[in-house]
Amino acid sequence: MVSSYFSDARRLLCPLSLWAKRCPNSGEMTPVGGKRVKKGILERLNSGEVVIGDGSFVFTLEKRGYVKAGLWTPEAAVEYPEAVRQLHMEYLRAGSNVMQTFTFFAGKDNLESKWKDVNEAACDLAREVTEKGDALVAGGISQTSLYKNQKNKLEIKEIFQQQLEVFTRKNVDFLIAEYFEYCEEAVWAVEVLKESGKPVAATMCIGPEGDMHNLTPGECAVRLVKAGASIVGVNCHFDPTISLKTVKLMKEGLEAARLKAHLMTQPLAYHTPDCGKQGFIDLPEFPFGLEPRVATRWDIQKYAREAYNLGVRYIGGCCGFEPYHIRAIAEELAPERGFLPEASEKHGSWGSGLSMHTKPWIRARARREYWESLPLASGRPYCPSMTKPDAWGVTKGTTELMQQKEATTDQQLNELFHKQKFKSSIA
Ligand SMILES: [Zn+2]
After folding, report:
1. Any idea which positions bind Zn(2+) (predicted)?
2. pTM, rounded to two decimals
């Protein structure tokens, strides 16, 4: 059924340049002679459409040389707008329906005097790219650096308020509060974003064990929906399999509380079966040695199908998710969506492009069964399949978690190196 569908895939291609015309099989028509009004996020989700999110920004732009690892802040929106624009474009071609503003960790707490320019530039870039296709702009805020240490509600809400003021002025289509380890702070974010009257999505970077205060995923979802979020789920920190387990718990929590909300997942594209409660941050390979864990496009097709079967209709990715991973979501769900993304012009589904290869044993790989069942080798003979997460037992309020304004001194670093040696010798 599926393979015969894909053998006829060409006719389903929906190039961006044609998006405003009729997309084959999509059933959408453009009003003649006028500017097409895009359907809003809730209109799409309420009608059962699949909304494809975008992928990694800070991780991908760090690898491309435009973001500094450590604080992971998005100054590139101002410093290298062409790099940010290009990445948005690649996600759009791959099938994304949402351009999230590149505003991760972009509050005044992290960016100080630069916060406003960065937020404004990020809105302009996202809007510019959405105009080229069927995508919406989502203004994004994330957890602050203040909550862990001082939990000052007013100060934290003011940071969200400032970013929201820019998003409102730039008229983003909807809002996302993402990457929250603590439900309480996520609820504050939703409360602020709701004031705009625009739809609010909220995702936490938690696994099945729940938030850092031991609130279950189900309870987190309930609190976020009660605060005003219309879309809830998880992003970052865990792989697709674990993230879907978490969202299933959220779904069950909402059902038990008789609350309704749309579900959303934007997991890592790294396999993390060995992670603890805090996810991939604690893996010894974070952040510069994660490459052996990268999911293949086939892993991501499986994720897209499982997410869909679970009832998730906003499906995207976070760190490690490249445009080809997003294309894999769009290809897997093409039968439901009725069209393929523009980037599929250069990609035969399930390896079908290999049928043109000169070597016969490569041509023999031009089939779904081959790629679906292939056990992958890492090419690293002394590489363990799992590692042991660093778990120092430090939590909210610990001085070691205080974010410093200045760089860590050599002496402070030496103390940490010593502590790490000690911790791993007793582990
Ligand atoms: Zn992430």
Report:
1. 236, 318-319
2. 0.89
In our burial notation (b when 16+ CB lie closer than 10 A, e otherwise), range 105-128 reads bbbbbbbeebbeebbbbbbbbbbe
Q: Ligand 1 center to residue 178 CA distance, Å?
A: 9
CA angle 336, 334, 271 (to 5 degrees): 105
Please tell me the distance between residue 377's alpha carbon and the centre of ligand 1 in angstroms.
25
Is 155 within 8 Å of 146 (Cβ atoms)? yes
CA–centroid distance, 381 to ligand 1, in Å, is 29
Q: From ligand 1's centre to the CA of 280, what distance in Å?
A: 9
Query: Is there a binding annotation on residue 236?
Result: yes
The pLDDT tens digits of the residues spanning 307-343 come to 999 999 999 999 999 999 999 999 999 999 999 999 9
Determine the Cα–Cα distance for residues 172 and 130; give it in Å rounded to an integer.
Answer: 11
> 111 CA distance to ligand 1 centroid (A)?
19
CATH architecture of the domain 21-352 equals Alpha-Beta Barrel (3.20)
pLDDT, tens digit (0-9, with 9 covering 90-100), for 231-279: 999 999 999 999 999 999 999 999 999 999 999 999 999 999 999 999 9
Give φ, ψ of 277 to 5 degrees: -60, -35
Q: Ligand 1 center to residue 287 CA distance, Å?
A: 11
Question: Domain-by-domain residue ranges, the chain?
Answer: 21-352
Q: Can you give the pLDDT at residue 228? A: 98
319 is in an annotated binding site: yes
Task: Give 254 Cα–ligand 1 centroid separation in angstroms.
Answer: 25
